[in-house]
Amino acid sequence: MSVIVAGKLYVDPKDRDRFIEGHRPIVEAARSRPGCLDLSISPDPIEPGRVNNFEHWESQEALDAFRAVAPRPSVSVDIKDDQVFKHQISHTGPPFD
User: Fold this and answer.
1) Is 55 exposed, middle or buried, given 0-12, 13-18 or 19+ CB atoms closer than 10 A?
2) Which residue from 50, 56, 71, 73 lies 20 to 30 Å from 94 (Cα-Cα)?
């Protein structure tokens, strides 16, 4: 069963680009790990303080293995709010059936 971790979080708009760049080592490390199908931490195009998080893992075990060795962000930025959730996926198919 694959796992998706997705959602949004909010930082001060003046810190958003620094927050995203500070998480670049995590994105790079995750994408090179076995079991990582995709990972992105990106700016929202509409809300200035919003950061979008998306992770797709082959399994919970792959996610756990990465979290055990994941680098820390290279910056410290306060997160004002977050709405990020883990989803366990039992079926995947085309977006328009």
Assistant:
1) buried
2) 50
By 3-state DSSP, what share of the chain in percent is helix, strand and coil, each rounded to 5?
A: 30, 35, 35
Which amino acid is located at 79 in the chain? I
The three-state secondary structure class of 60 is helix
Contact 19, 77 (CB under 8 A): yes
Model confidence band, residue 83 (pLDDT cutoffs 50, 70, 90): very high
**E-assigned strand segments in 1-97:** 2-10, 36-43, 50-57, 81-89
| Full-model pTM | 0.91
**Two tokens, residue 95:** 């977006």
User: Which among 50, 54, 53, 52 is positioned nearest to 11, based on CA atoms?
Assistant: 50
Q: In this structure, are residues 55 and 30 in contact, taking their beta carbons and an 8 Å threshold?
A: yes
Has residue 9 got a pLDDT over 90?
yes
